[in-house]
Amino acid sequence: xxxxxxxxxxxxxxxxxxxxxxxxxxxxxxxxxxxxxxxxxxxxxxxxxxxxxxxxxxxxxxxxxxxxxxxxxxxxxxxxxxxxxxxxxxxxxxxxxxxxxxxxxxxxxxxxxxxxxxxxxxxxxxxxxxxxxxxxxxxxxxxxxxxxxxxxxxxxxxxxxxxxxxxxxxxxxxxxxxxxxxxxxxxxxxxxxxxxxxxxxxxxxxxxxxxxxxxxxxxxxxxxxxxxxxxxxxxxxxxxxxxxxxxxxxxxxxxxxxxxxxxxxxxxxxxxxxxxxxxxxxxxxxxxxxxxxxxxxxxxxxxxxxxxxxxxxxxxxxxxxxxxxxxxxxxxxxxxxxxxxxxxxxxxxxxxxxxxxxxxxxxxxxxxxxxxxxxxxxxxxxxxxxxxxxxxxxxxxxxxxxxxxxxxxxxxxxxxxxxxxxxxxxxxxxxx
Length: 432
What we know:
Layout: H1 4-16, H2 19-25, H3 30-36, E1 42-43, E2 46-47, H4 53-61, H5 81-95, E3 103-110, H6 112-121, H7 134-150, E4 153-154, E5 160-166, H8 175-179, E6 182-186, E7 189-197, E8 208-209, E9 212-213, H9 219-231, E10 235-240, E11 249-262, H10 274-287, E12 292-299, H11 302-310, E13 315-325, H12 332-342, E14 345-350, E15 363-377, E16 380-388, H13 393-398, E17 404-405, H14 408-412, E18 416-428
Family: Belongs to the pseudouridine synthase Pus10 family.
InterPro entries: PsdUridine_synth_cat_dom_sf (IPR020103), Pus10-like (IPR039894), Pus10-like_C (IPR048741)
GO molecular function, one term: RNA binding
């Protein structure tokens, strides 16, 4: 029961209304009557707009206004209990499919067809700036019901977004019309880690050309499989600190990556558990047949995602190659000392011929920070390199028909080629 203090306060708003406003009140629902009168959401301790219509109607009638619930000229029925109850029920049903925190936020979009209908009824009606906005009133009312009935709390930074799209005049006798107005959108979830790749037949992303799969599996698919199934996400977006070719292994502590999960069925708090990440690591190992190992898996966020993107070209990478040298080398120490003395070495590389079909022609400067050579026999050696991110290591070894200069062959004064390549380490260097 609303006390007399609230009734007197509302009576004041009705009495102060202009003649034009009073003429409109009879064409409005209860809540729109209060909107026209610029009644605040909280009045004398009561959240007025959140009260059911059977409590609001007597307040209007007591002030000689008979509210019109079905054909309100200011909301077309959107703010009536009949429509709000239906929306609330649909939202409750949809929430059963989600595992969410006890907070929420509401967004509402009024589509063109609804706005056109509204403007047609309101032609000639002038509303003052002080009167309560339709969207704001809906959020107050619907949010109040959620807090009261679902024991959830409104929070502007909540990961749970209740999204209402009003495309046409809401009608409770059309199930699909109401159902299509409500959607639940959860904030993206970020997870990160490092992957170790032990195969020379795995691509980083699915390698499909003209509907023909050229690599049997990919790192992305091995990492996604469990996440999509467990989190119910619609999509995963993968970002890694660089990429290696199909025939190159990624060893050491692995390559850093972040995955963004979109439209998941749970909020991030539900995965912040050690058991989840242990199971993810196990599932990746099983899914890849032991060829991909997941390390340092943990919850991430948009800040880490931005940092990984920012440091894309500030990484240093350590490689190990098996190389062929046409000129026989008898004294390893002299050659190794000469190569080590040559560093740091600035090289210029045109876009390699092997990737020119998918990348624009450009000339790039890169730094070779360290070169170490160990002979296997006079013509074959293990070559360890520390380079800038974005260095084409294969081309540094064989020269790419002169498109990389200088290259290993030009330094040694002979022809050189690469037989095998591994990434040993990816180090992120922070900018100062």
